[in-house]
Amino acid sequence: MDRYSTILGCILGTAVADSVGLKREGLSKQRARRLYGEPPLKQNLIWGRGLCSDDTEHTLMVGRALVISQGDVTQFEKQFARELKRWFLCVPAGVGFATLRACLKLLVGFHPERSGVNSAGNGPAMRSALLGLCADNEEHLSDLVCSSTRMTHVDSRAEAGALLIARAARLTTQGNASNPLEFLQSVVTTLKNEELQQSIQNVIQHLAAGASPESYAETQGWGKGISGYVNQTVPAALYCWAYSPDDFRQSVENAVMLGGDTDSVAAITGAVSGANLGADAIPTEWRERLMEWPRTNTWMELLATRLSERSPSTEPLKPPSMYWLATIPRNLLFASIVLTLGFRRLLPPY
Q1: Residue 349 domain-assigned?
Q2: How many domains does the chain have?
Q3: Residue 289 sits in which domain range?
Q4: Quick check: 4 and 308 in contact, CB under 8 A?
Q5: Rounded to the nearest 10 degrees, what angle do helices 262-277 and 156-169 cross at?
């Protein structure tokens, strides 16, 4: 599998999974089933199509920062901070509280190294898979993940979870023939966060026993849904990927059906699965029903091309524009859709 297909698989995998899970975000798995039914799932946020949330937008901004910086960590930090500030000024809907506070600090002049807040949310993990594909080595990866994470979240748990997702995404690209279970077994003892280490040990035990993602979540006390806490989101996403590593659709659908923070858990699952399987593994139906604008499927393909061409020895490449001015009306439309969806949830079935 070539570098372009791997990178595009990660980017589009994030986007389509995000769009499939978005409509159920914040609902318990029981209520989501009553409202929206069982698999097979499809995007249906508006006009039978799907839109993306901040999970995808952050991944795209990370991609742009990587292209512009050519992977230099210092320049990546500066560029990603610029991207975050511009993104925040375009009034995105559904910003996480930690990210909101960090963006405000960036806007009033805090240095990116000091803008993060004390939070163990899943924000850094939702944008870290692409870093795994573009890092030159483990040390470079650790530095990139640290820079990306601490700009918004300074809790070490957030960084540990983000790094694990990035390492999972690069499994195939490293020529590692190990399956996901073997990968998790090989990294669990290296995890510095004790709680995450125990969570991944539980993942390994349940995978080895053949337990379904839903059964696994029940045993962890997450029966109603997965929260945005990184040590719930990351183990749940990795479980869904490792349970069906050769089936992108099943991995994402299992993530969505767990309930809770469905768009983020699905987006992370889709990023890791897409990175390891390649873009061709993503269902054509899901790709065609993605109605994202102004960052369309074609836009994402161009970003993947620029990232696959990136090399420290070449002249800096220009990534596709984020079209920030066009993003403002897009975000206003998105917010109105989300508001309408919220009112619909006030009605039965309960």
Answers
A1: no
A2: 1
A3: 3-344
A4: yes
A5: 40
Could you tell me which of 63, 131, 122 has the C-alpha nearest to residue 97?
122
Digitized pLDDT (tens) for each residue of the chain, 350 residues in all = 899 999 999 999 999 999 999 999 999 999 999 999 999 999 999 999 999 999 999 999 999 999 999 999 999 999 999 999 999 999 999 899 999 999 999 999 999 999 999 999 999 999 999 999 999 999 999 999 999 999 999 999 999 999 999 999 999 887 765 699 999 999 999 998 999 999 999 999 999 999 999 999 999 999 999 999 999 999 999 999 999 999 999 999 999 999 999 999 999 999 999 999 999 999 999 999 999 999 999 999 999 999 999 776 667 789 999 999 999 999 999 999 999 999 999 999 99
Given the structure tokens 């962890």, which residue do they identify? 220
Angle ∠(329,331,334) on CA atoms, nearest 5: 110
Query: C-alpha distances in angstroms, 153 versus 80, 156, 294?
Result: 14, 8, 28
Q: If you compute the radius of gyration of the chain from its CA atoms, what whole number of angstroms results?
A: 18
Residue with tokens 């499939």: 20
Count of CB atoms situated within 10 Å of the CB of 187: 16
Exposure b/e, 255-265, CB count within 10 A at least 16 = b: bbbbbbbbbbb
Angle of CA points 98, 295, 103, to nearest 5°: 20
Angular region, 16: left φ>0, alpha ψ -120 to 50, beta rest? alpha
CB 7 within 8 A of CB 274: no
**CATH number for position 11:** 1.10.4080.10
CB 251 within 8 A of CB 270: yes
Tokens of 22: 């978005």
Length of the chain as a residue count: 350
